[in-house]
Specification:
alpha+beta, YojJ-like (1, seven-stranded mixed β-sheet, 7 strands, globular, binds adenosine-5'-triphosphate
Length: 273
């Protein structure tokens, strides 16, 4: 009797489990893709699938033959043409916004963020540029290996020393993780976005590229304008004030992905209460 009940239970739960896992997977995949240019790929697939379904329902034999024969070449073509977008989507899928993938941690404290922002303000006044990367869940060993390992306690003076002109490490990016300066002089991937402002040079392009390739947060101090900007999730937020940066960093380090506009809305609704 028990085995019958168990069998009945499993035969009920199995399809629920299968549908649940598939729905979760497709939702996560869509969520990752919706943030990137790979949504164009989804549109192509949806259009092709709709056309195929219509041909099937209306029994349009010639169109059905056509769709059957173009499926594999189209899939290969899309994988080749959209390879960077697909790679980014998968990276975001596994780095994810889901708690399940929260393996790594970034525990840079509020005081340490203050030290970083103090350094940024001094750099702004001295008209020096800087690029600081905060890895989150995804490891960025390849980026760290492209520079020089520092592995030192975080301090305003060390950041200033690194980004001062004529120091061997001022060219490139600094990596800060868990309140420590892990490396400096690191090379970041450049963004391939074409709709980025023409006035942005390679420093901003590198910050954006890093935010496209990984879930890291990047701070950029512009040597030319003195603006402090931030990139993450393939977006660049230009010229932010120090308080916004601090609040955003704290939120982002605790995996609460937030934009400056959302932060302002939260602050104004807190004031209203
Ligand atoms: N791929 C890269 N990885 C890390 N750092 C980079 C990379 N490309 C450029 N940089 C840094 O950016 C500096 C050049 O900045 P550039 O003036 O071209 O950029 P920008 O976006 O106009 O910034 P700024 O507003 O500070 O002038 C380089 O000296 C180097 O330190």
């Amino acid at each position: 009797m028990w085995t019958d009940a168990l069998q009945n239970f499993f035969s009920f739960i199995r399809p629920v489990l299968e549908i649940g896992v598939l729905a979760w997977f497709f939702y996560r995949f869509y969520e990752a893709i919706a943030q990137t240019k790979a949504q164009q790929i989804i549109r192509v697939f949806v259009t092709l699938f709709s056309a195929y379904a219509l041909s099937y329902i209306l029994k349009l034999e010639v169109l059905l033959w056509f769709f059957k024969n173009i499926t594999i070449p189209t899939a290969i073509f899309i994988c080749i043409v959209y390879q960077p977008e697909l790679r980014r989507s998968f990276t975001q899928l596994w780095s994810g916004r889901s708690r399940i993938f929260r393996i790594g941690t970034q525990t840079t404290s509020g005081d340490q963020i203050d030290s970083i922002l103090n350094a940024c303000n001094v750099l702004v006044n001295k008209r020096r540029g800087a690029l600081i990367v905060f890895p989150r869940r995804l490891g960025i060993k390849n980026i760290i290996d492209s520079g020089t390992r520092v592995n030192a306690d975080l301090s305003t003076s060390l950041i200033l020393t690194v980004f001062d002109h004529d120091t061997p490490l001022h060219d490139g990016a600094m990596v800060i993780q868990n309140g420590r300066i892990v490396a400096a002089g690191c090379y970041l991937p450049l963004s391939e976005q074409t709709d980025i402002k023409k006035s942005f040079g390679t420093r901003h392009r590198a910050a954006l590229g890093m935010a496209e390739e990984s879930d890291a947060v990047v701070l950029v101090v512009s040597e030319e304008t003195g603006a402090i900007s931030m990139t993450y999730n393939a977006n660049l937020y230009y010229d932010l004030d120090p308080l916004t940066i601090k609040r955003m960093l704290l939120a982002l380090f605790s995996y609460h992905d937030i934009t400056p506009e959302e932060l302002q809305q939260e602050a104004s609704s807190d004031e209203a209460e």
